[in-house]
Design a protein that fits this description.
The protein has about 350 residues and is of the alpha+beta class. The protein is built from 8 helices and 19 strands. A hairpin with a 2-residue loop joins strand 13 and strand 14. The structure holds pyridoxal-5'-phosphate.
Length: about 350
């Protein structure tokens, strides 16, 4: 199917809600922009996408996704460059990843014309909703739901693809305290850890609630066989700076979500001549490095937080506290470098940025 931006039908709001928003008071995930995009998939084909006023949806209680979790999503951000023009960061990578999730969840491929061109048209129409200001952005949430009105168990035949957007103010990156999870499991080989499936988030709520009660912020997930090999922190990819090398788990076992931020970080580090090893990382190796004073930095990466510094890691009775943040050369450099590219302050030599 080929849809050009002009094939997307647009029904505008009569009056924008933007004036009701206080730019000093934007809270992620609470305010939504004026418009949303919806595309239906039925009889084996995507129908023409429509952009329309943001509104509530109504479904039969028998609809597939309520019961069987055939639901996937993505997270993308748009930023304003110094001239005030919105730019979207690496949406093609999110598009490809959504289709990897879709395949695993027996859902149809979303065409580029709907995912990327639909997103561009939507952000263009709501461009006033992309906040200006340091660390502010428009969070873009594409998602797909199975919507058969049938309560029997079978892969669905009807789907809805939706995009909504939410202005986000500065993300407060206080260093997080991490608990190394040795009981619950997020992902295992052959599972769906590499997808952005709703169920991956649903299953993480209970273990996260437990460690929060114990005073930690996030979980460092480990493998399901030995609880030794680290996977991700919370819903972010994880990096460790040991000596002069940067380590991150490899994605070969389908247990790691292939983050766009992860890939950006690896690319930038390698270009700067820093060694990045993508390989299995045993928690014993981290402990050993900490004992020897070689564990210099540790951080999570994701679209929402960008680079999230880790203040301490607790494994059994061992609380490994990291050096003070102002000594973290690599993550402090990365954070600035990434922001300069995302906000269009620096030349985009990787073709990461998409203008409207
Ligand atoms: C979304 C997500 C990430 C981060 O991916 P980005 O593309 O960098 O935002 C990492 N881990 C999990 C489990 C995720 O769902």
């Amino acid at each position: 199917m080929s849809v050009s931006t002009t094939d997307i039908s647009i029904r505008k709001v009569e009056k924008s809600r933007i004036s009701e928003i206080d730019p000093a008071e934007i809270h992620f995930g609470i305010n939504y922009s004026d418009h949303m995009l919806i595309a239906y998939y039925e009889n084996g084909a995507w129908q023409k996408p429509e952009i329309m006023p943001f509104h509530n949806l109504s479904f039969s209680p028998a609809t597939t996704f309520f019961h069987y979790g055939q639901a996937i999503f993505e997270g993308v951000k748009a930023y304003k460059d110094p001239q005030g023009n919105p730019i979207i960061f690496r949406p093609y990578d999110n598009w490809k990843r959504m289709n990897r999730s879709a395949e695993r969840m027996a859902m149809p491929d979303v065409p580029e014309e709907i995912f990327v061109e639909g997103m561009r048209a939507l952000v263009d129409l709501d461009r006033d909703w992309v906040p200006v200001g340091a660390e502010s952005s428009l969070y873009i949430r594409p998602f797909m739901l199975a919507v058969d009105e049938f309560i029997g168990v079978r892969p669905a035949e009807k789907f809805m693809f939706i995009i909504i957007t939410s202005p986000a103010g500065p993300y407060y990156n206080h260093p997080v305290s991490i608990y190394v999870q040795d009981k619950y499991v997020r992902a295992f080989p052959g599972g769906i850890g590499f997808t952005k499936a709703a169920g991956n988030y649903g299953m993480s709520m209970y273990p996260t609630m437990q460690i929060k009660k114990m005073g930690y912020d996030q979980i460092l997930w480990t493998d399901g066989f030995e609880h030794k090999f680290v996977q991700e922190i919370g819903t972010m990819n994880v990096f460790f700076v040991i000596g002069d090398k940067v380590l991150t788990p490899d994605i070969t076992q389908d247990t790691i979500l292939e983050g766009v931020t992860r890939d950006s970080v690896i690319t930038l580090l390698r270009e700067k001549g820093i060694t990045v090893e993508e390989r299995p990382i045993n928690i014993d190796e981290i402990e050993e490095a900490h004992k020897n004073g070689q564990l210099k930095e540790a951080f999570g990466t994701g679209t929402a937080a960008s680079i999230a510094p880790i203040y301490a890691l607790t494994y059994h009775d061992d609380k490994m506290v990291l050096p003070p943040l102002d000594q973290w050369e690599i993550s402090n450099w990365l954070k600035k470098e990434l922001a300069d590219i995302r906000y269009g302050r620096k030349e985009d030599t990787h073709n990461w940025i998409v203008r409207l």
